UniProtKB/TrEMBL annotation:
Residue numbers spanned by region Disordered: 1-21
Keyword Membrane in record: yes
Species whose genome carries this gene: Xanthomonas hortorum pv. pelargonii
Protein name stated in the entry: Phage holin family protein
Transmembrane segments: 67-92, 98-125
Length: 162
């Protein structure tokens, strides 16, 4: 088998030198490669545009949901909870707790519900940061998030030293 490979390789070598393309064929090949590169760049930009569009749609949806949860937290904390808290305080005081203890446990429950609502707000607002677009732009080398922060903090300190 190795004898066949060596004879086949030896017989192709002289033919490869005689089949060297001419200048016009080389220019056509380079032009075709350039057009293929341009087509690939167009496809990449279209994909990036679709990604940005989808990321903005996700951010818009997350913002709406976060805003809805914020409204739930405000409505719950401001209106109905006041009435319910008054009733709970009265019941706890009637059950034998002091006024301080009754108000403390009611306030603790209020803080717990407010914390859960705030957690949901932060969860949905995290999606408004366009994270997928930032990752792709960083991969392409177009956007570098860390350099902006480093430059902003380095500039004032360098200016103060000189």
């Amino acid at each position: 088998m190795s004898d066949q490979a060596s004879t086949a390789g030896a017989s192709d070598a002289p033919n490869a030198r005689t089949e060297t393309p001419g200048l016009d064929e080389s220019v056509r090949a380079v032009g075709a490669a350039g057009r293929a590169t341009l087509g690939s760049a167009k496809d990449t930009s279209r994909a990036l545009r679709r990604l940005v569009s989808a990321d903005l749609q996700l951010a818009r949806s997350a913002f709406g949901r976060g805003l809805a949860w914020a409204c739930v937290a405000v409505v719950f904390g401001a209106s109905s909870w006041l009435l319910l808290a008054g009733a709970i305080i009265a019941l706890l005081q009637r059950a034998g707790l002091s006024w301080f203890q009754a108000m403390f446990f009611t306030a603790l429950a209020s803080l717990l519900v407010t914390g859960i609502a705030a957690w949901r707000v932060f969860f949905y607002f995290d999606h408004t940061g366009l994270n997928a677009t930032r990752r792709q732009l960083i991969k392409l080398g177009i956007f570098d998030d860390s350099n902006d922060d480093d430059d902003a903090t380095a500039s004032p300190s360098n200016g103060a030293r000189t």
